[in-house]
Amino acid sequence: MNTSLKVQVTNVCKSFENNLVLQNINLDVNEGEIFGLLGPSGAGKTTLVKMIAGINNADSGTIRVLNVLMPNLSLLKKVGFMAQSNALYGELTALENLDFFAAIYGLRGSIRKARIDSVMDLVKLTENLRKPVSQYSGGMKRRLSLAISLLHEPEILILDEPTVGIDPVLRQSVWNELKRLSENGTTIIVTTHVMDEAEKCERLALLQDGHIIATGSPEELKEKTNASSIEEVFLQYGGADV
Ligand SMILES: Nc1ncnc2c1ncn2[C@@H]1O[C@H](COP(=O)(O)OP(=O)(O)OP(=O)(O)O)[C@@H](O)[C@H]1O
């Protein structure tokens, strides 16, 4: 494995009971890349990112993250995962939630405090730090989940539809932060079905019915198909509406 290759998915298949949801998936993600998984609802995006994060097992094939065969608990501190459904403790305040995850990641003392301040500032929730999460709106919960995934400055950041329910201004600042992180070497995998977000990724895999139907940078994909938008690219490759 070359050293810039941070995530390698090889011939991965996954079924739930008799339903084959991912078929022979191959993809490579390089250091510092923002890699987008784009596809309609049910295409298999969440299933794939959960396996890359080590939450679920593949039925066959292999997934290597930082050259370690997944799933592997030793990568807990190096991978950040933001799930589509928020994994938060509603009865606790945001700060208590952050402290809980900071403890899991081994963050202590002044470093813990500095990281909490930094991620809460990023998602514009500093003023709500001491509010119980049960009193948060849906969008605030998404922002807190994003803050938690960034807390330990993971080398690999996996975000499942991170900006759903987040307003356009904050969405822009989240993307600016993702760009900044990637420029500093963080490798980012993000699922989306928002076209303008897909355009912000350095490379994309288009996923349809459990298959990757195309991979490349947004520009390459548009050039190859003579399309003016990623939406058009998707349709040209035989994809359904995203
Ligand atoms: N735990 C499960 N048990 C059974 N089927 C599942 C399970 N998880 C996902 N599936 C099925 O796998 C397929 C892919 O689902 P997945 O959530 O990965 O798609 P997705 O592309 O992330 O969709 P969305 O954009 O709506 O989140 C769907 O048909 C879904 O019903």
UniProtKB/TrEMBL annotation:
InterPro entries recorded: AAA+_ATPase, ABC_transporter-like_ATP-bd, ABC_transporter-like_CS, P-loop_NTPase
GO MF annotation list: ATP binding; ATP hydrolysis activity
Keywords: ATP-binding, Nucleotide-binding
Record domain ABC transporter: where: 7-234
Highest taxon in the source lineage: Bacteria
Signal peptide: none
PANTHER family registered for this protein in UniProt: ABC TRANSPORTER G FAMILY MEMBER 20 ISOFORM X1, ATP-BINDING CASSETTE, SUB-FAMILY H, MEMBER 1
Protein name: ABC transporter ATP-binding protein
Organism field: Anaerobacillus alkalilacustris
